[in-house]
Design brief:
By secondary structure, the protein is mainly alpha-helical. The chain contains 6 helices and 2 strands. Its main location: membrane.
C-alpha cells in the first residue's frame, strides 16, 4: 500500500513537470488573438487521469498551473486569471474524456471521449469567459471594458473556435501517443486500481 502511494506521488509529480514544460512551449495561432495560445500540457494530465484516476488528472492540472503562476507571475496585480482559465479548460477537457473511455476502454471510446471533451471544453469555456474570466480581466487587470455585444462577438469569433481547434489538435496528438501506449496505459491503470 505504501509503495502504491509513493508511485502515485512520483507519477503525478513527473507528469506535472512534463505538463509545465509543455505549457511553457505555447504558441499563438495566426487567425486568433495573440492572448489565445495553444499548448499541449493537457496530454500529461490526460495520461495521469487514465492511469491513476480523475483526481490525478486534476492534480496534474493544478500543479502545472501553480508552477506556472510561481515561475512566471500572474497576469498582473497578483491575480492568476489566465492560470485559472487554463486550469478550468484542462479539467473540462480531461474529465469527460476519462469517464467515456473508462466505460469501454477501446480506441473508439477514447476518440468519442476526446470529441466530447473538446466540445465540453469549448462550450463551457465560452460560458466561463462570458461570466467569469473576461470580467475578471476587466476588474483585476484593468483591461478595457467591453460591452456585452463585444464580449459575445469575441467569444463567438475567437474563444469558441479557438477552443475547438485546440481540443482537436490535442486530440490528434494524443491519439498518436495513445495508439502506441494503450496496452501499457491499461496495464498501469489496472495496477493502480
Amino acid at each position: 500500500m505504501k509503495k502504491r502511494g509513493v508511485l502515485y506521488l512520483v507519477g503525478v509529480a513527473m507528469l506535472s513537470s512534463i505538463a509545465y514544460i509543455l505549457m511553457m512551449l505555447n504558441f499563438p495561432l495566426p487567425p486568433f488573438p495573440t492572448f489565445l495560445k495553444i499548448d499541449f500540457s493537457d496530454i500529461p494530465a490526460l495520461i495521469a487521469a487514465i492511469i491513476m484516476g480523475p483526481a490525478a488528472g486534476i492534480l496534474v492540472e493544478f500543479i502545472k498551473n501553480l508552477l506556472h503562476y510561481i515561475m512566471t507571475g500572474s497576469d498582473g496585480f497578483g491575480v492568476p486569471v489566465g492560470d485559472f482559465a487554463n486550469f478550468m479548460a484542462g479539467i473540462l477537457y480531461i474529465l469527460p474524456t476519462y469517464y467515456i473511455y473508462n466505460r469501454l476502454k477501446t480506441r473508439k471510446s477514447m476518440t468519442f471521449g476526446l470529441v466530447l471533451g473538446t466540445a465540453t471544453m469549448a462550450v463551457m469555456m465560452s460560458v466561463l469567459n462570458y461570466f467569469v474570466i473576461l470580467p475578471a480581466y476587466t476588474y483585476f487587470l484593468h483591461a478595457p471594458a467591453m460591452s456585452g455585444a463585444e464580449v459575445r462577438a469575441m467569444i463567438v469569433t475567437a474563444i469558441l473556435p479557438f477552443n475547438f481547434v485546440k481540443g482537436f489538435i490535442t486530440m490528434l496528438l494524443f491519439m498518436l501517443l495513445f495508439s502506441r501506449m494503450q496496452n501499457w496505459m491499461n496495464k498501469q491503470a489496472y495496477k493502480n486500481a
